[in-house]
Amino acid sequence: MTEINDLISKIVNNVQEEQANSSSSTNTATASPQSAPTSGKTMTQADYPFFQKHPDLVNAPTGKNVKDVTLEAAINGDVKPEDLRISPATLKAQGQIAASAGRSSIQSNFDRAAELTKIPDERVLEMYGSLRPYRSSKQELIDMAEELETKYGAKICGAFVREAADEYEKRKKLKGDN
Amino acid sequence: MKRQKRFEELEKRPVHEDGFVDEWPEEGFVAMDGPYDPKPSVKIENGEIVELDGKKKEDFDLIDSFIAKHAINLDTTEKVLAMDSQKIANMLCDPNVTRDKIIPITTGFTPAKAAEVISQLNFVEMMMATQKMRPRKTPATQGHVTNIRDNPVLIAADAADAALRGFPEQETTTAVARYAPLNAISIMVGAQTGRPGVLTQCSVEEAEELSLGMRGFTAYAETISVYGTEQVFTDGDDTPWSKGFLASCYASRGLKMRFTSGSGSEVMMGYAEKKSMLYLEARCIFITKGCGVQGLQNGAVSCIGIPGAVPSGIREVLGENLLCMAMDIECASGNDQAFSHSDIRRTERLLGQFLAGTDYISSGYSSVPNYDNTFAGSNMDATDYDDYYAMQRDLKVNGGLVPVKEADIIKARNKAAKALQAVFKSLDLPEITDEEIEAATYAFSSKDMPERNMVEDMKAAQDLMDRGVTGVDVIKGLYAGGFTDVAQAVLNLLQQRIAGDFLQTSAIFDKDWNVISAVNNTNDYNGPGTGYHIDDKLWERITDVPMAINPADV
Questions:
Q1: CATH 3.40.50.11740 for the B15-133+221-361 domain, yes or no
Q2: Does the ipTM surpass 0.95?
Q3: Domain range spanning residue A154?
Q4: CB contact under 8 A, B242 and A164
């Protein structure tokens, strides 16, 4: 260790003699900000982050704006768990942003998700369970698709479940097939 | 035979405790280029794929059907399949071809085409390609925070510790399943105390994991497993459709999620259908794409022993990470399971992802000693921090971690334990004593912690779920205990679910809640001098390792 210490002392002395001045170059890894668009239009990558660019549009399904979700409000009991949820409109916007960044499959997922926001937690968990292998008969899956379509207006999810019902029948993943 | 003494010495080396097997394609023990792998093909009739990788539509299993319907770009796939695989491989590792030129090609792949292209690359070419194809320009890594006694005070202190060291995502799980809500709250409170903006998760059974997220105890999930053969998928108690639905459930609650897959799982579960690990993993990556899921944890993950045992297996592991990123999916790239008895080999395991940089180099790095890692131990653990820091410093690589000052860690651990004490008190959970706080502040492992009454804790955890406690109640508890800044951080975390910015590909937050994702931090690597660079401020921190001699002190 003493050898290293000696070496470093020498280098330090040299450096001080030379009085080297350091130049600094900084790299930042952020995208340049874009101008904020108006609401109602199709969102793009330029509208991201949505929270920063469009705080006025970030509303929970209850209608509460994110700016009203303050610590004070939370302590006073003015923030309900429902006020901390994403709205279908925001999911649509995020889907458009994903598509504009070249990721249309993410948009499809968010479109399904936008429909599912309306379904209570417990029911949505049950629906997931029903889609697991050997849980449901074909009719039960079709009934579930109908529930999605008529009760919740979830057309995309309904079609997704119908597609699963057909595939499960073909590949023997329905109730009683195991 | 009379033993040669050098051979006898070599047999005592740790590498001899590892498992190695010769290729056995019939049972799936082949990394890539398997003799039974299908040749790439695609046929489209009336806007529908009727042949995929040599299989006719009527012979499709669930996975083929799902991929054909949801995961392949019909407009481009025929053209892409007509391209020479070696030429595409060349584009992948050529710095002059930017990422945005590659994505339109990879999204037209079929699984067999994808595997064929990746198989053209040697290890260094895969690293070149990974550096460019990582979706988020800035690399990062993920940490495990667990202990074998599910001690909540220690989880909170360890989460704060890990947050200070730079993990933007932290994952816990349970030793005893019933502890889940307590572990989820403890890691969240600890992480937000250490550094606001850290995302936390608690890995448990699929439906329960979602339920924890819905309550506001977790911010994301990743242990949503998908598999490469239908039989194993079904044995895993899911189908591509149930997993796709689950993915949408997460997004519908404003929660980030990624899938998990990894080579070796099909071999482990006994139904590899004679296919190579890379081909089966390609199918998993396509399922992820088809579900519209932003990310995937892959790279053999908990089955690393299988690819690790066959020839070219660790190359295959980097290859599957690369394929994930080349298909424009966030990659949490394994390095998360104890893999080798040899320190040399576990460094080898890490190097590809570490040097090239992935969205999360480890998924995750054990921020606690492996003794306390309830994911069965990781490739690197808390006792490897200083080696890891030295590697970052030696090679000027951002591996996602930064050296820390002992005094800062003590302060953060203590504050996190106290913050959790306040939350437990306010939620009427079993008391956290001052003795426990002191122990957690200075602990090496759970051996340093006083015993807790685990039966009481588990009862309280169940009661907390029955009472319908949510994240808002955690905020109230923090505030009542005087931890206004931590209360604000948890609130900010919950606010992010309303906005959904962190549902985009590869999203993490900095300490000021600025989202950093593939959307606003796009990887623009185009050769030397482009893409990601360590800035001066970070470099200063990386170089400041505890063991370095400060010339000014000499």
A1: no
A2: yes
A3: 119-178
A4: yes
